[in-house]
Backbone:
């Protein structure tokens, strides 16, 4: 006890030597009431990362797409924002590395199948695949898709009770059903409907994504019988949890949509378990409770969608005709807005991250060692670009000194031209 | 009575004024009255629109909206507005569309009062569909019809009316914008409510496809191409499985598609391919279909091998084409039993 107190009282910079990276997070949290400790993290960053690799926005083009910042990361690879430099359209690109794909069971097959499906799907509630590019040398594949700002899961996690106000949940749910109906009409069973696979476009149009484990019915199959499922366990229906040989595919999606509806309106899951066996045992029994806070109308829709017997379970058509679906819900609580990307990010609108790269593409000063002939168009004459810009800055500096460090507004655009150094915040050399 | 006074007229007055003015337009007695009545209609419609939509500075007042809709239902004004649309001036027509669509979207809890109201006044829908016959109001009617299409109950009434079959005529009208507007309404009716249209197509198969045939044989390139594309969409929608099976069992349909594969237009060839493939992919081909395919086996294989070879980018198309060629090559005459 006494020893721990002593540690807590020690000045932050001395702690640095006692708490190595391999110490558990909890122990750091334990003494984290001391604000000075925040500095600790700065001290611990490997200096090589900061000093020798100044963060620069290097323009990188993949085909006609100019790369922006990372939007997210999945098991398959990164997703980045890009700009279509011909159409000037904001897009997202899923970068798939063959090396990574091989490690995932059915990884390559799933991707190939997803691309095949997406190519023939055109609906505003299903993500649109715009382009597929491959780089055999780097063993990479790029899936260019519609740009989406967020996903339902991220929005849910940003609020304390992890749920949406009824009106907002209804708004998303209706779109989910529209998208699902379309998928089913095209003979596609998604099999992995969950808030994490529902994206939102900038106008809050919901887009069903990730058809990696989806299945297309044979065009002449008489019904929707399926045999396999690899979807997320918590969203699987009893017939799958109980390991039935065959099951009706469309009803699987209805069930998952039901769990999704339960989740976005209550902030909890109908079925839970410490591990997949317990979870499946729980789902297999099909017993769950609807919280009292859920009104009767919604409860009856959820019950219809989470009906144990797939034959009795609602069809998309029945969902559509349900009163909760058709009802105009009153605005009672505040709409959940897009959360900021990170705590200190002030850009609540998530504006385009390609801008900096775009500037670099047209006005940038590539340094020799990083210059990638393949990616940066060779036609840009580097020397001609630098000279006037450098001149501008020199003049500007002398003027700035005259006005005692208060740069006038007119100078700002000039300063921008200087290329690399305008993003100097990552470099320690300058400070 | 000044129409644009400081004090706004209340819903009752507006509706009464509109009814009177419309009646004058309907049965003109003196020439003088006509001009004034027409101006009145335009002004009242503009006022009604403001009452329903509000203005830039102020939101619409719920009590006014509720009262106005009540008055409109009770006074049978929707029907009057639609039937006299031709006599209302340009701006007024646009306002009618906006008023109509706003009322239609009105919802109280799970109820849509205007939709329920129109369900009992089928003649409003009929009048709207007939609107395609009057070029001046065709597009206005089209906008209202498509709003109606969003509601299954109304779509059902329209599909099951005799007037639905007039669409087969409207989509071929010589005025291009009206024909395309009619086509989009027609398409919406057949696509929007999957179960409804599946049921409709099944129950009215003969009548619908007899008429549809004339679209596919149309002199008009646009009609032919659009109709063919829609046919492909309808047949490949799983909701229409029964209809699809029926369609691909008819040898005449196969012959038509085979002829369309050889059309001059590449776009039509391509669309025809997507219907043709269903005939070939069918694992249970009826005898007449099989016979036609067998008779043309060699020719078809040759033809498909050379068919749109420049579409090398389109993987799905090439896969499907390769599949069809294989299927046709493997075709065997059924053993005589």
Residues:
């Amino acid at each position: 006890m006494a020893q721990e107190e002593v540690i807590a009282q020690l000045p932050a910079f001395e702690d640095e030597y006692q708490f190595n990276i391999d110490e558990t997070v909890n122990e750091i949290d334990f003494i984290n009431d001391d604000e000075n400790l925040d500095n600790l993290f700065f001290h611990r960053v490997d200096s090589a990362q900061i000093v020798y690799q100044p963060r620069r926005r290097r323009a990188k083009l993949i085909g006609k797409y100019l790369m922006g910042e990372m939007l997210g990361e999945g098991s398959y690879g990164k997703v980045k924002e890009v700009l279509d430099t011909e159409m000037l359209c904001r897009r997202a690109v899923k970068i798939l590395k063959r090396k990574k794909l091989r490690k995932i069971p059915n990884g390559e097959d799933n991707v190939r199948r997803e691309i095949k499906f997406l190519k023939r799907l055109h609906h505003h509630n299903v993500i649109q695949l715009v382009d597929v590019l491959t780089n055999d040398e780097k063993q990479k594949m790029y899936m260019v898709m519609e740009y989406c700002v967020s996903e339902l899961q991220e929005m849910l996690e940003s609020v304390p009770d992890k749920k949406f106000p009824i009106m907002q949940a209804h708004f998303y749910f209706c779109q989910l059903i529209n998208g699902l109906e379309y998928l089913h009409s095209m003979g596609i069973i998604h099999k992995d409907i969950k808030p994490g696979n529902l994206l939102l476009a900038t106008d809050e149009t919901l887009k069903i994504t990730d058809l990696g484990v989806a299945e297309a019915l044979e065009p002449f199959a008489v019904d929707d019988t399926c045999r396999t499922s690899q979807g997320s366990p918590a969203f699987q229906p009893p017939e799958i949890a109980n390991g039935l040989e065959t099951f009706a595919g469309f009803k699987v999606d209805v069930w998952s949509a039901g769990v999704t509806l339960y989740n976005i309106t209550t902030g909890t899951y109908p079925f839970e378990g410490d591990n997949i066996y317990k979870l499946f045992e729980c789902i297999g029994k099909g017993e769950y409770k609807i919280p009292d806070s859920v009104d009767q109308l919604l409860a009856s829709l959820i019950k219809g969608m989470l009906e144990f017997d797939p034959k009795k379970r609602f069809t998309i058509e029945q969902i559509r005709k349900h009163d909760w679906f058709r009802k105009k819900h009153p605005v009672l609580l505040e709409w959940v807005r897009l959360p900021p990307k990170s705590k200190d990010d002030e850009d609540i609108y998530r504006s385009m991250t390609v801008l900096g790269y775009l500037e670099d593409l047209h006005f940038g000063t590539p340094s020799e060692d990083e210059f990638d002939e393949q990616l940066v168009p060779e036609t840009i004459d580097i020397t001609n670009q630098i000279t006037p810009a450098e001149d501008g800055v020199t003049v500007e500096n002398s003027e700035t000194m005259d006005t005692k460090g208060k740069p006038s507004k007119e100078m700002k655009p000039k300063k921008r031209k200087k290329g690399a150094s305008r993003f100097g915040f990552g470099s320690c050399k300058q400070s | 009575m000044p129409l644009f006074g400081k004090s706004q007229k209340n819903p009752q007055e507006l509706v009464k004024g509109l009814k009177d003015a419309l009646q004058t337009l309907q049965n003109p007695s003196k020439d003088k009255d006509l001009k004034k009545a027409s101006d009145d209609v335009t002004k009242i419609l503009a006022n009604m629109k403001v009452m329903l939509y509000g203005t830039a500075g102020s939101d619409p007042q719920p009590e006014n909206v509720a009262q106005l809709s009540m008055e409109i239902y009770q006074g049978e004004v929707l029907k009057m507005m639609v039937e006299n649309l031709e006599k209302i001036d340009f701006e007024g027509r646009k306002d009618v569309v906006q008023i109509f669509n706003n009322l239609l979207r009105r919802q109280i809890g799970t109820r849509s009062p205007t939709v329920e109201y129109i369900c009992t006044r089928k003649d409003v829908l009929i009048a709207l569909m007939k609107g395609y016959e009057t070029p001046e109001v065709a597009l206005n009617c089209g906008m209202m019809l498509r709003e109606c299409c969003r509601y299954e109950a109304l779509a059902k009434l329209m599909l099951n009316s005799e007037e639905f079959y007039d669409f087969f005529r409207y989509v071929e009208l010589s005025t291009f914008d009206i024909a395309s507007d009619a086509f989009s309404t027609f398409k919406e009716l057949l696509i929007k409510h999957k179960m409804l249209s599946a049921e409709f197509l099944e129950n009215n198969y003969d009548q619908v496809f007899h008429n549809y045939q004339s679209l596919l044989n149309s002199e008009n390139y646009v009609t032919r191409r659009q109709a063919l594309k829609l046919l492909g969409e309808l047949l490949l929608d799983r909701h229409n499985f029964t209809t699809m099976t029926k369609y691909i069992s008819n040898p005449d349909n196969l012959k038509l598609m085979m002829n369309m594969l050889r059309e001059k237009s590449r776009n039509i060839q391509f669309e025809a391919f997507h219907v043709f493939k269903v005939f070939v992919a069918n694992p249970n081909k009826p005898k007449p279909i099989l016979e036609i395919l067998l008779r043309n086996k060699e020719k078809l294989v040759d033809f498909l091998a050379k068919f749109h070879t420049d579409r090398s980018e389109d993987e799905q198309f090439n896969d499907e084409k390769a599949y069809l060629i294989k299927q046709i090559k493997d075709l065997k005459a059924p053993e005589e039993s």
The first helix of chain B runs from residue 11 to 26. Chain B has a mean pLDDT of 92. The CA atoms of residues 37 and 305 of chain B lie 69 Å apart.
